[in-house]
Amino acid sequence: MNPHASTPVQNGGRAAAAGGTRRNEWRAVRMVMPYLWEYRGRVLLALSFLVIAKIANVGVPLVMKEIVDTLDSKQAVLFMPLALLIIYGALRLSNTLFAELRDIVFVRVAQRAIRRIALSVFRHLHSLSLRFHLDRQTGGVTRDIERGTRGVGTLMSYMLFSIIPVILEFVLVAAVLLNKFDWRFAAITFAAVAVYIGFTFSISEWRIAIRRQANELDSKANTRAIDSLLNYETVKYFNNEEFEARRYDENLRNYETAAVKNEASLGFLNIGQSCIIAIAVTLLMILAAQGVVDKSLTLGDLVLINGLLIQLYIPLNFLGMVYREIKQALTDMDRMFGLLTQNREIADKPDAIPLADMPATVRFEQVDFSYDPKRKILHGVSFDIPAGAKVAVVGHSGSGKSTLARLLYRFYDVGGGRIAINGSDIRNLQQTSLRAAIGIVPQDTVLFNDSIYYNIQYGRPDAPHDEVIAAAQAAHIHEFVLTLPDGYEARVGERGLKLSGGEKQRVAIARAILKNPRIMIFDEATSALDSATEQAIQAELTRIAEGRTTLVIAHRLSTIMDADQILVMDGGRIVERGTHRELLERTGAYAEMWALQQQEEAAKVEGLPLRSALPVTG
Fold it and tell me: Does residue 53 contact residue 296 with C-beta atoms inside 8 Å?
């Protein structure tokens, strides 16, 4: 027995998976239909123009037959069929005219659908949790959206203006053949079309798998390139340009192999289609020529059959491409719509209420949390921040300090316990009103690749110019901006890389000031500033915090001496709490951290290595 042979269960599983994939692909059609229904008047008008164009197209060879028969010298006609020639020209014009009118009428339907679907996906991506965005690959997601929105237009255009026209034209040609010629002409035409369609669909199904693999490899290569370019500085720091180039080239090489296979399969498809059409046309022309010789058909009939077959087989020649593009559009749309099925994880309850417009009291009650079930981050954390009070959190890296801010913003939901504002569990509040009430100055400030003015005004996009400038002055960045050639219109570069860490942090402070929230979070807000600037900014932050409920996550203990309460965290637990003076008197973990930082500052002032400022033990 072959150990590698597929079992019936495995084969059945693969078949079921393939069936599920097909069902998933066709759900894209259901999602597009509402947009067609919304513009049903335009769609019906476009289809009417389509029918007129096809009738005119089939009418051309009919008129051409009459012209040829009229000009046949054997019929001894002594006048030029001027009326028929005019009709011929009018039909030629009508075919193009109504086809263009069809596109003009329908273009708004397709573009509006593309716009709305892309907007829906974009909004949904912003509604997903931080967990999704930390795991995502930006390049691949953007490429999926790009291909998916393009697929919407492709699906609409091809299904309405390629599949329906082929069916309509086939019906019209069949009617003419059955009416004017014997059954053999129709039989050969029907048989050829059936073989052509069967061959095209079977080969196209094979090619779609190749195309899907090529697209996945393309997305992977694009993701690799974007990730490398976004980390340009890191690449340079470690002199890894060639390493990145090799990794990128490996992805490109895989894509190259798939793309070559894709094109080779296309050549095989085209050759097969051409053979089927050539055989059918040859047989029909032999029958027609025999009819002319036997005097049962006229020369015009020969022209008519040739014209009908050309008009029928030209669109059929594109059927493989149309089928492939429709299937590819369905696949691309399915990948894009798959983003819509991503679990939002953090969603408003149906009865969620807005946060009341009043001073905010924040309470953490026995909060447990873990990013990964195997590793718990917070263990029963409880504390209060009274309205207008300032609470600081300190601790070693990884102790869970920044997690508190993420939970308060509800980027994640707590695993146990609850977080309440004015007595209401934040899970019962509308996320928009919750986040509107909170302002944050993060430790790692990431800016939009736009102007400094835009990045500050982002805190409140409708803020007037004078308030934006006032926020910049309060953050002590106004003078720096004035020294730039473009002033506030100076662009900050990708993720703000054109600015220093301190400059980015001051932009973030200005942005938070402009938002004017009731709850402020300072997540090591001055960590990137020099001592002189930090003192000036710290005074401003203290002024900003007045009257606001404030959570300060700090590394430098000198910046939180005025806090109403200081929490010391270690291993996800609060190990000490109290004021600065109370904690120093306890000579515990906080006192040790304070002593160490004081020694570090003294060592910097004296210009000594840190170890010489530390007490010698042993």
Answer: no
Whole-angstrom Cα distance, residue 71 to residue 139? 65
Secondary structure of the chain: what % helix, strand, coil (to 5)? Answer: 65, 10, 25
- Give all domains of the chain, ordered by start, each with its CATH number: 20-340 (1.20.1560.10)
Please report, for residues 274, 289, 406, 410, 567, the alpha-carbon distance to residue 414 in angstroms, rounded to integers and kept in the order given: 64, 83, 10, 9, 19
Structure tokens at 445: 């400030």
Q: Do the Cβ atoms of 360 and 549 come closer than 8 Å?
A: yes
Q: What is the pLDDT of residue 214?
A: 80
Show Cβ contacts of residue 502 under 8 Å, excluding neighbours closer than 6 positions: 528, 529, 530, 533
Query: Which residues, in sequence order, are bridge partners of residue 429?
Result: 353
Residues 55 and 30: their CA atoms lie apart, in Å, by: 30
Alpha helices in 318-430 (DSSP H): 319-340, 401-408
Question: Which pLDDT score is estimated for 362?
Answer: 93
Please, where are the H alpha helices in 546-588?
Answer: 580-586
So what's the pLDDT on residue 335? 73
Is 22 in a helix, a strand, or coil?
Answer: helix
Residue 254 contacts residue 217 (beta carbons within 8 Å): yes
The whole-angstrom separation of Cα 238 and Cα 258 is: 32
Distances (CA, A) of 400 to 8, 248, 428, 551: 51, 36, 24, 14
Counting as low any pLDDT under 70, the low residues of the chain are: 1-29, 31, 69, 71-81, 126-143, 317-320, 324, 338-345, 495, 525-534, 536-537, 604-618
**Alpha helical stretches, state H, 352-474:** 401-408, 431-436, 452-457, 465-474
Predicted TM-score (pTM) of this structure: 0.60
> Using CB atoms within 10 A of its CB, is residue 371 exposed (0-12), middle (13-18) or buried (19+)?
middle
Question: Using an 8 Å Cβ cutoff, are 575 and 393 in contact?
Answer: no
